[in-house]
Amino acid sequence: GSFTDAWSTRWNLNIFAAAGFVTVALDFEGSTGYGQNFTDAIRNQWGGKPFESLMKSLDQLLDSHPYIDRNRLTALGASYGGYQINWINAHSTAFKALVNHDGMFSTVSTYYSTDELYFPETEFEGVPFDEQARQNYEKWSPERNVHKWKTPTLVIHSEKDYRLVVSEGLSTFTALRRQGVPARFVYFPDENHWVLKPANSLRWHREVLGWITQWTRKDTIGESQSQKFVVQGEHLN
After folding, report:
1. Cα–Cα distance between 157 and 191 in angstroms, integer?
2. Catalytic residue at 161?
3. Do 107 and 137 meet the contact criterion of CB atoms below 8 Å apart?
4. 147 belongs to the catalytic site
5. 1 DSSP 8-state letter
6. Cβ–Cβ < 8 Å for 156, 213
7. Rounded CA separation 211/205 (Å)
8. CB 74 within 8 A of CB 151
9. Which one, of 210, 215, 217, lies nearest residue 237 by Cα?
10. Angle between helices 49-64 and 80-91 (to 10 degrees)
11. Which listed residue (102, 141, 161, 205) is catalytic?
């Protein structure tokens, strides 16, 4: 995908900016809108070229905008972005907190539970029960690197998500907490791959903004105590 001029209540960057965060949406290598060859170049590269371009872009951004505090960075992602959050957790220590919305924990388990087989069979060049393709699934599976996870992570998942089923989120949360990594799991029983209902959207924003505020406030950085964030007169406790 690509961040365009479209407006939505979901992942509306103005909300994060209004909360006081320098907000950046990067079109990493493989994003749409730059030609099909550019998109196809990341096939079987899920944790490779996109991650590398994200981190290089972040470095360039920090160098060119010195007012950004590089010691209080967070990263958020959904769907493939959620996959990327799990990948980042094992391959970067740049962020104080992460948010994973409806992300992928295991490429193999996702193949057997997703409603759309075209994506994994195309991206990983085959099926996981083929010996050669299995190597691709294993290479790019976040589950293979959970022992490297250290960054506090908010995990959000919905019961009616059939693209990436709720067990992917539960598995991510379990892997974090079993290792003592600070984490919180937010579950929506009545949503799918997107959070669409107005009341649920308010809760989503309270949880997300509260989490990234908690881990980036100067007076509490590195602490796990709860911070309050106000959304339309309600308080996150």
Report:
1. 9
2. yes
3. yes
4. no
5. -
6. no
7. 10
8. no
9. 210
10. 70
11. 161
| Catalytic hit among 27, 130, 193, 201 | 193
Q: What does each C-alpha distance from 62 to 5, 18, 23, 102 come to in angstroms? A: 24, 20, 12, 28
Is 79 part of the annotated catalytic residue set? yes
Looking at residue 1, what is its pLDDT? 73
Rounded to whole angstroms, the Cα distance separating 169 from 193 reads: 12
Task: Give the DSSP H or E segment for 101.
Answer: strand 97-101
For the chain, what percent of residues have pLDDT higher than 90? 81
Q: Put the strands of the sheet holding 183-188 in their side by side order.
A: 74-78, 97-101, 153-158, 183-188
Task: Name the band, by pLDDT with cuts 50, 70 and 90, for residue 229.
Answer: very low
Whether 78 shows a pLDDT value over 70: the answer reads: yes
Distance (Å, whole) CA 166 – CA 146: 18
| Amino acid in the structure at residue 220 | T
Query: Is 196 buried (19+), middle (13-18) or exposed (0-12) by CB count in 10 A?
Result: middle
Catalytic residue among 53, 79, 167, 201: 79
Give this prediction's pTM.
0.91
Q: Which segments of the chain does DSSP mark as H helices, in order? A: 13-18, 36-40, 49-64, 80-91, 107-113, 118-123, 131-139, 166-178, 198-214
